[in-house]
Amino acid sequence: MRLCACEEKEKVLTVGCETRGIGRLSEINPVYYPTYHLLLTGNLLNKLSVNDFVEYTGLTILHLGNNDISEGLRRLHLNNNKINALKSELFFGLENLEYLQMDDNYITHMEAKALGTLTHLKVLILNDNLIASLPTNIFQLVPLTHLDLRGNQLKTLPYSGLLKHMTSVVELQLEENPVTYFIKEFDINTFRHIPNLQLLFLNNNLLKTLPEGTFNGLMLARLNLRNNHLRSLPVRGVLYKLTALVQ
Q1: pTM of the prediction?
Q2: What phi and psi, each to the nearest 5 degrees, are found at residue 47?
Q3: E strands, 54-151, where?
Q4: Side-chain half-sphere of 106: how many Cα atoms within 13 Å?
Q5: Which of 39, 120, 216, 237 could lock onto 212 through a cystine, CB 3.0 to 4.6 A?
Q6: What is the rounded distance in angstroms from the CA atom of residue 238 to the CA atom of residue 183?
Q7: Measured distance CA(159)–CA(165) in Å, rounded
């Protein structure tokens, strides 16, 4: 078995296995520690599967940069941990991810290029974190179909940070945020870049108004506006073109 360097700081163990010529994960032993980081940068790994990490239950950060991975993890579950920021280095070597689950963490900050290498990512689950804002164009290179941001601290839904690059999104979950408006200036094209959107959840927010034409061009099957501060809902100007609406 390969020997790795271990260092414990503030109850988090860092296991350094960089540049040790590791070609398979079976060459190292799983670490049994409540919370740890595993650094596998600069090795010879060429393939990964979800089952490779079954016994790595305390793993919160995994570095896989500078390996020979041509195909690898499609799904990564990092929910219910203590991650407080999304950084690009967190996903080195994981360019094939299609499903990323990071709900129930302590994420407050997202680097502008945090998701820049995840060009195959379709499902991103970030609910129940502490995200108050989104960097400009954070999703520009990410072909998302499902985005879950419910239960965060978003006060606005910026056009450039969120709505502009949602061309493939089918389901958008934004409930339980203190959202008061979508963008700084509402216009009839607010959702024009999300033509495939079918499921939109805006319930349990602080929405006060929905300008005429808000949902123009959409074929929504489900729209949830429950428990907001809307005093009226102009059916003719807001809902009358949603002919596919089921619920």
Answers
A1: 0.73
A2: -155, 140
A3: 59-63, 75-77, 85-86, 99-101, 109-110, 123-125, 146-148
A4: 5
A5: 237
A6: 17
A7: 9
Q: What is the dihedral of CA 204, 205, 208, 209, to 10 degrees?
A: -90
State how far the Cα of 161 lies from the Cα of 139, in Å rounded to an integer. 7
- Percent of the chain whose predicted confidence (pLDDT) is above 90: 37
In angstroms, rounded to a whole number, what is the distance separating the alpha carbons of residues 9 and 24? 28
Q: What is the CA radius of gyration of the chain?
A: 21
Closest CA to 170 of 151, 141, 196: 196
Model confidence at 172, pLDDT cuts 50, 70, 90, reads: very high
Q: Are 60 and 81 in contact (CB under 8 A)?
A: yes
**pLDDT at residue 246 in the model:** 63
Report helix, strand and coil shares of the chain as percent, to nearest 5. Answer: 10, 20, 70
Query: Which residue, chain included where needed, has tokens 């807001």?
Result: 238
CB-CB contact of 113 with 136 (8 Å): no
